[in-house]
Each structure stands twice: as structure tokens, then as C-alpha cells.
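User: Sequence recovery, please. Input:
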């Protein structure tokens, strides 16, 4: 059993973190023979090329979660260099995508050990998808690549979707196994945790998580991947049904939220203006 208080579990040996821009993480996932890799959300081609070279890998596929430039900006250069398939959401128009995906689809790559189930998770954008795999290589823990939908201790802004859509999307991710590692696309964890502590000041697990995240950031370490079990215990956007989160939304709104969607929407709007 995963310990629910380890908020920054060791990542899969198959996954390589590639930082880009100011706070993005691009993800390389190695095949089981460690010769090929898939990349998730290459917003920039140059750091991916450098990481492939350093690890002696060829690029087998590009997986996209949504259309934003910081996620898809490197697609055409990588596709030209590697002539590889590009998977992405059918519901969004992204240059270079030649394998459009719908909810429930399975991506099976020629590279050994790489296959992913597709979940539609609209909210941040209208067509946003996430990629889930039961295991990676010899590591029995599941892995979720969720772009800008679920963040460590937070969630993406609602640029194109509604609070109701995002709540359903986050609920699907929260229902994944506790020990699933969450490979989200940004290092937003500290600011998310400061907000989460304002929502739930009495949540002891949250205080512990903030302590761990501060320690890691002070050493220059990433706080991603996170873990679904830890998210359920501390992420206010997965906890809109909890009495403490309802109480915070009530104080914010001046009246009790009528529904869980109203509670979620109030918390999300508060986060938008939280300093
Ligand atoms: Zn985005
Ligand atoms: Fe982003």
C-alpha cells in the first residue's frame, strides 16, 4: 500500500522529466527496451531533442493533451525530425495531429511497453484528454499524464469549459487507483498549496504536504509527480463535497453553495484572484 503521506513519490524509472519555459514539465516515457520514447506535450522541441540525445533514445510518438502552445509548440519540428505519429484530442484542431483520439480509445505504440488509455477531461479546454497506463515497465504503479487538468494540489483554469464539466473530469481522475502517479504539466504546487491551506486551514495532511513541498523546492527539486491518493486528501478541487471545503465556499459566497458544482465553482473563482 502506498503511504498516503508521501506526497512526492519517486517517479517511474521509465519517465524522464524535461523542464521547459518557466514552469512546464514535458515528459519522455521510455519503452521497456530503453531504445525508444514517447513524449507528452512537447511545447518546445529543443529540450526534447537534447534529452533524447543524452539518453540515446529515438522518438516513437508524440502524445498531446490539448492545443495550448506551451504543450504543442514543438510538434512540427519533432515530427519533421523523427517522422513519428502524433496523437491528440479529436475535439481540438492542432497542427500535426494525424491520430485523433476520443474518450475510451487506446493508444498502442510499436515501442514495447507503451500503451495508454484515453480519458476525455474537458474543462481547461473543450477537448482536453489525459493518458493513463496501468504500469510502466517493471514498475507496477499506474501513471497518469493529465496536462493542465489536474495539478499537484490544484487544477487548471477554466478557459473553455464549465465548472460542471471540470468537476466531472476531475472526478474521473480522482477515481483512478490511489497509487497512480500524476504527471501534470506545470510546477504550480507551492502556490496551489498556499491556496489550499486558505481553503482548509485545519487539514493536517495539507500542512504536511506544504512542509514536504517547501523542502523539495528549497533543494531545487520538482514536486511532480504527485499521487492520486495524496490529491484526494489535500487537493481542494477534488474535495468540493467535503464539509470543510463547503464551509470555506459558504464564507466566500456569503451563503451555502446549492450544489457541489456551485461549491467547486466558488473555490475555482477564489483561486483565480488569490494572492
Ligand atoms: Zn493549457
Ligand atoms: Fe500549460
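Assistant: Recovered sequence (275 residues):
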Amino acid at each position: 500500500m502506498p503511504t498516503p503521506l508521501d506526497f512526492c513519490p519517486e517517479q517511474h524509472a521509465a519517465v524522464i522529466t524535461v523542464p521547459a519555459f518557466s514552469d512546464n514539465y514535458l515528459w519522455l516515457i521510455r519503452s521497456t527496451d530503453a531504445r525508444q520514447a514517447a513524449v507528452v506535450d512537447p511545447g518546445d522541441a529543443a529540450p526534447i531533442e537534447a534529452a533524447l540525445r543524452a539518453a540515446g533514445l529515438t522518438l516513437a510518438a508524440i502524445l498531446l493533451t490539448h492545443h495550448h502552445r506551451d504543450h504543442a509548440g514543438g510538434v512540427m519540428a519533432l515530427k519533421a525530425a523523427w517522422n513519428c505519429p502524433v496523437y491528440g484530442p479529436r475535439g481540438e484542431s492542432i497542427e500535426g495531429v494525424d491520430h485523433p483520439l476520443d474518450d475510451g480509445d487506446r493508444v498502442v505504440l510499436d515501442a514495447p511497453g507503451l500503451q495508454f488509455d484515453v480519458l476525455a477531461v474537458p474543462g481547461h479546454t473543450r477537448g482536453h484528454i489525459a493518458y493513463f497506463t496501468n504500469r510502466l515497465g517493471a514498475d507496477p504503479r499506474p501513471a497518469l499524464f493529465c496536462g493542465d487538468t489536474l495539478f499537484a494540489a490544484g487544477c487548471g483554469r477554466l478557459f473553455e469549459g464549465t465548472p460542471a464539466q471540470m468537476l466531472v473530469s476531475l472526478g474521473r481522475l480522482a477515481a483512478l487507483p490511489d497509487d497512480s502517479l500524476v504527471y501534470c504539466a506545470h510546477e504550480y504546487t507551492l502556490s496551489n498549496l498556499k491556496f489550499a491551506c486558505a481553503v482548509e486551514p485545519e487539514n493536517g495532511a495539507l500542512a504536511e504536504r506544504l512542509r514536504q513541498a517547501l523542502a523539495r523546492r528549497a533543494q531545487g527539486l520538482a514536486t511532480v509527480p504527485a499521487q492520486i491518493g495524496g490529491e484526494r486528501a489535500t487537493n481542494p478541487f477534488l474535495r468540493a463535497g467535503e464539509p470543510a471545503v463547503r464551509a470555506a465556499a459558504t464564507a466566500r459566497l456569503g451563503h451555502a453553495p446549492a450544489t457541489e458544482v456551485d461549491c467547486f465553482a466558488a473555490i475555482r473563482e477564489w483561486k483565480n484572484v488569490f494572492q
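The longest strand covers residues 24-30.
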